[in-house]
User: Fold this.
Amino acid sequence: MKAQFVPPEFTAQTWPRVEKFVVSALKYGHGDYTLEQAKLLVCMGSWLLIVAVDDNNEIHGCATATFLNYPNSRVGYITTIGGHLIANKDTFKELCEILKSKGATKVQGMGRPSIVRLWKRFGFEPMSTLVEFKL
Assistant:
């Protein structure tokens, strides 16, 4: 399995192959984005699309990410992840290298407890708990 960045100009060709992974991730997104909005953000280059492919170029998972710029860091923030993308250390390392090549100094993401447990295997540490109140 290998992680690869998909340039925005190839979103239209790639999206049908990754849509199911984005849908599965958005189920846990609390309605912040629709599938159509996620696709638009990738097409416009606001979000990166990173796919996990095998030797036959079959896609087994994908992630989307954006960047948050702070005075002392640039965070590669994972907005969606689905399928089998960071299931092993090599693929996770490649994901990090892609984000680093875009200037990231850190990687962050939110997730339900099972995702947090998975990410802890790759060195992620829980930083805080997000709470929300709808107005």
Notes: The CA atoms of residues 8 and 45 lie 6 Å apart. The mean pLDDT is 93. The chain is about 35% helix and 30% strand.
